[in-house]
Amino acid sequence: MHFSIPETESRSGDSGGSPYVAYNIHVNGVLHCRVRYSQLLGLHEQLRKEYGANVLPAFPPKKLFSLTPAEVEQRREQLEKYMQAVRQDPLLGSSETFNSFLRRAQQETQQVPTEEVSLEVLLSNGQKVLVNVLTSDQTEDVLEAVAAKLDLPDDLIGYFSLFLVREKEDGAFSFVRKLQEFELPYVSVTSLRSQEYKIVLRKSYWDSAYDDDVMENRVGLNLLYAQTVSDIERGWILVTKEQHRQLKSLQEKVSKKEFLRLAQTLRHYGYLRFDACVADFPEKDCPVVVSAGNSELSLQLRLPGQQLREGSFRVTRMRCWRVTSSVPLPSGGTSSPGRGRGEVRLELAFEYLMSKDRLQWVTITSPQAIMMSICLQSMVDELMVKKSGGSIRKMLRRRLGGTLRRSDSQQAVKSPPLLESPDASRESMAKLSSKLSAVSLRGIGSPSTDASASDVHGNFAFEGIGDEDL
């Protein structure tokens, strides 16, 4: 998750008080909340009491006198680094102190009173689920409310997540981010002030072996089935004409488990697909479509005069990755602190083990770069849990006497219509080969250094993966 403080604001104090500087905290490029230095200092002091000074990153010190514009900019950069460091720390970033601070600040900034509202959540097939929640309910609360409405058992809630998406003109979903524990879903979606943005329920794991747990339950089976049919219709899952015929036959027999068993064998089953973007692989400014799943990033591309091809980058061969954000300078080439900022350009860059002794940077330029990074991290987390012999089953907190709030009026997952005839315009793809050696690779340098260092995120989560995984 990408935290930034790209700008400050001079605001008037309450009741005619002295003006003060406000820091706008953005999450994935969208305003999350607006806070004062004193509020962030209070958060720092609370974290220090709970976890000790040695655990915390450096916090910018108080100043006795008013700050100059240069000092305001310096403090902004220091606070941005601080927030990023706290969020990326496994202990601090998951703490209730940190997350509740951000939830309160979000609600106060958007000036949303606490009240009961009806929130619309979509299933993957477009079915609407209306749940009654409080505007102050956090992501876990809303997820539990949706589960209660659908009658999904408690022990399967952790297999699903809520995602913020943008609905495009053709009805397809463009995934913005997975909703996190530090935000209020109702406030997050309504503050965007656009009907394009929706909340969608989708499975949150990558390894299809976990399907077995979900498919044993009727509601879980129906959710997986609806998602899979929808992904096939969108072209996210790659299906031949013969496979399409077999799937439709199983649909007609209402053989949902057998349908899913066949779907599990198909290329890109369970993958998340992103909007078309640009990569520097296998050549500069190459148009690609990126999909994430099965412990890999898949790049679909077309080289001049060639058929559609696919290259696969395994996460076990990525030494590290980082998200870089840069802001184009306005005409004239200079920018004063906090002013004249243009649209942020996002890049995901990863260092990939092309062969035994050769690492190479690959860069993807996409507005969804942060979402791609989140997918990579969750695939890493899942691999590490599996490697240690653990389970992805989440131990969710239980409130209200240790049980979930169950809805009085429950809603069934609607069975999707039969698959339509396969799109004749969809091409088959040639594999570039698992090690990508079939492509002539240019020497690609490290990502551009024009971006601020505070926007670069390193991730070395694979220190525990051994050579046998390569």
UniProtKB/TrEMBL annotation:
Residues of the PX domain: 1-109
Bilayer topology: Peripheral membrane protein
Subcellular location: Cytoplasmic vesicle membrane; Early endosome
Region (Disordered): 401-431
Keyword Phosphoprotein: no
InterPro entries xrefs: PH-like_dom_sf, PX_dom, PX_dom_sf, RA_dom, SNX17-31_FERM_F1, SNX17-31_FERM_F2, SNX17/31_FERM, SNX17_FERM-like_dom
Keywords for the protein's UniProt record, in alphabetical order: Cytoplasm, Cytoplasmic vesicle, Endosome, Lipid-binding, Membrane, Protein transport, Transport
Record-annotated Ras-associating domain positions: 115-206
Family: Belongs to the sorting nexin family.
PANTHER family (alphabetical): SORTING NEXIN 17 AND 27, SORTING NEXIN-17
Protein function: Critical regulator of endosomal recycling of numerous surface proteins, including integrins, signaling receptor and channels. Binds to NPxY sequences in the cytoplasmic tails of target cargos. Associates with retriever and CCC complexes to prevent lysosomal degradation and promote cell surface recycling of numerous cargos such as integrins ITGB1, ITGB5 and their associated alpha subunits. Also required for maintenance of normal cell surface levels of APP and LRP1. Interacts with membranes containing phosphatidylinositol 3-phosphate (PtdIns(3P)).
Assembly and interaction partners: Monomer. Interacts with APP (via cytoplasmic YXNPXY motif). Interacts with KIF1B. Interacts with the C-termini of P-selectin, PTC, LDLR, VLDLR, LRP1 and LRP8. Interacts with KRIT1 (via N-terminus). Interacts with HRAS. Interacts with ITGB1 and ITGB5 (via NPxY motif). Interacts with CCDC22 and CCDC93; the interaction associates SNX17 with the CCC complex. Interacts (via C-terminus) with VPS26C and VPS35L; the interactions are direct and associate SNX17 with the retriever complex.
Name of this chain's protein: Sorting nexin-17
Species annotation: Echinops telfairi
Gene: SNX17
